[in-house]
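Fill in residues.
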Protein backbone atom coordinates (compact mmCIF):
# COMPACT_ATOMS: atom_id res chain seq x y z
CA UNK A 1 0.00 0.00 0.00
CA UNK A 2 2.71 2.51 0.94
CA UNK A 3 4.54 1.88 -2.32
CA UNK A 4 1.36 2.47 -4.31
CA UNK A 5 0.69 5.81 -2.57
CA UNK A 6 4.29 6.87 -3.11
CA UNK A 7 4.09 5.96 -6.78
CA UNK A 8 0.86 7.96 -7.18
CA UNK A 9 2.54 11.01 -5.63
CA UNK A 10 5.49 10.66 -7.99
CA UNK A 11 3.22 10.28 -11.02
CA UNK A 12 1.17 13.29 -9.93
CA UNK A 13 4.35 15.35 -9.52
CA UNK A 14 5.61 14.29 -12.96
CA UNK A 15 2.24 15.20 -14.54
CA UNK A 16 2.28 18.64 -12.91
CA UNK A 17 5.83 19.24 -14.15
CA UNK A 18 4.86 18.22 -17.68
CA UNK A 19 1.87 20.57 -17.63
CA UNK A 20 4.05 23.40 -16.37
CA UNK A 21 6.58 22.71 -19.12
CA UNK A 22 3.79 23.00 -21.69
CA UNK A 23 2.38 26.21 -20.19
CA UNK A 24 5.52 28.13 -19.21
CA UNK A 25 6.62 29.32 -22.67
CA UNK A 26 3.18 30.83 -23.38
CA UNK A 27 3.18 32.77 -20.14
CA UNK A 28 6.71 34.04 -20.82
CA UNK A 29 5.98 35.02 -24.44
CA UNK A 30 2.44 36.28 -24.00
CA UNK A 31 2.61 38.55 -21.01
CA UNK A 32 -1.11 39.17 -21.57
CA UNK A 33 -3.97 37.25 -20.07
CA UNK A 34 -4.46 33.62 -19.20
CA UNK A 35 -7.84 31.99 -18.61
CA UNK A 36 -8.80 28.45 -17.69
CA UNK A 37 -12.18 26.90 -18.24
CA UNK A 38 -14.45 24.79 -20.37
CA UNK A 39 -15.30 25.53 -23.97
CA UNK A 40 -18.97 26.53 -23.99
CA UNK A 41 -19.27 27.35 -27.71
CA UNK A 42 -17.37 26.88 -30.99
CA UNK A 43 -17.70 28.89 -34.19
CA UNK A 44 -15.73 27.34 -37.05
CA UNK A 45 -16.67 30.12 -39.49
CA UNK A 46 -15.22 32.85 -37.26
CA UNK A 47 -12.49 30.59 -35.78
CA UNK A 48 -13.58 31.42 -32.23
CA UNK A 49 -14.27 29.50 -29.08
CA UNK A 50 -16.07 30.71 -26.01
CA UNK A 51 -14.55 29.85 -22.63
CA UNK A 52 -17.10 30.56 -19.96
CA UNK A 53 -18.41 33.89 -21.22
CA UNK A 54 -15.19 35.06 -22.91
CA UNK A 55 -14.78 34.90 -26.68
CA UNK A 56 -11.38 33.68 -27.86
CA UNK A 57 -10.19 34.39 -31.40
CA UNK A 58 -7.95 31.73 -32.92
CA UNK A 59 -5.57 32.82 -35.66
CA UNK A 60 -3.10 31.05 -37.92
CA UNK A 61 -0.43 31.98 -35.35
CA UNK A 62 -2.29 30.37 -32.43
CA UNK A 63 -0.47 27.31 -31.11
CA UNK A 64 -2.92 24.62 -29.98
CA UNK A 65 -1.55 21.62 -28.08
CA UNK A 66 -2.90 18.80 -25.99
CA UNK A 67 -1.72 18.61 -22.39
CA UNK A 68 0.32 15.45 -22.71
CA UNK A 69 3.93 14.61 -22.07
CA UNK A 70 4.78 15.63 -25.62
CA UNK A 71 2.55 18.72 -25.96
CA UNK A 72 1.16 17.20 -29.18
CA UNK A 73 -0.23 19.76 -31.65
CA UNK A 74 -3.97 20.00 -32.29
CA UNK A 75 -6.12 21.70 -34.89
CA UNK A 76 -9.16 23.89 -34.30
CA UNK A 77 -11.32 20.96 -35.44
CA UNK A 78 -9.96 18.85 -32.55
CA UNK A 79 -11.51 21.17 -29.93
CA UNK A 80 -14.97 20.39 -28.57
CA UNK A 81 -17.63 21.85 -26.30
CA UNK A 82 -17.08 20.82 -22.69
CA UNK A 83 -13.32 20.45 -23.13
CA UNK A 84 -11.17 22.14 -20.48
CA UNK A 85 -8.61 24.56 -21.93
CA UNK A 86 -6.00 27.04 -20.79
CA UNK A 87 -5.76 30.06 -23.08
CA UNK A 88 -2.93 32.56 -23.14
CA UNK A 89 -3.36 35.68 -25.25
CA UNK A 90 -4.04 39.37 -25.33
CA UNK A 91 -7.27 41.36 -25.17
CA UNK A 92 -8.43 43.16 -28.30
CA UNK A 93 -11.64 44.88 -27.28
CA UNK A 94 -13.99 42.31 -25.74
CA UNK A 95 -12.22 39.24 -27.10
CA UNK A 96 -8.97 37.48 -26.41
CA UNK A 97 -6.71 36.79 -29.37
CA UNK A 98 -5.12 33.48 -28.43
CA UNK A 99 -1.38 32.99 -28.66
CA UNK A 100 -1.55 29.51 -27.16
CA UNK A 101 -4.24 27.05 -26.16
CA UNK A 102 -3.56 23.95 -24.10
CA UNK A 103 -6.41 21.45 -24.31
CA UNK A 104 -7.03 18.83 -21.64
CA UNK A 105 -8.65 15.59 -22.75
Amino acid sequence: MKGEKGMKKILYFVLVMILLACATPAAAKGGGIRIDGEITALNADDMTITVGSTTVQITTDTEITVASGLCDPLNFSDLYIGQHVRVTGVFHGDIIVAKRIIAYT
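The domain at 2-104 is CATH 2.40.50.320 (OB fold (Dihydrolipoamide Acetyltransferase, E2P)).
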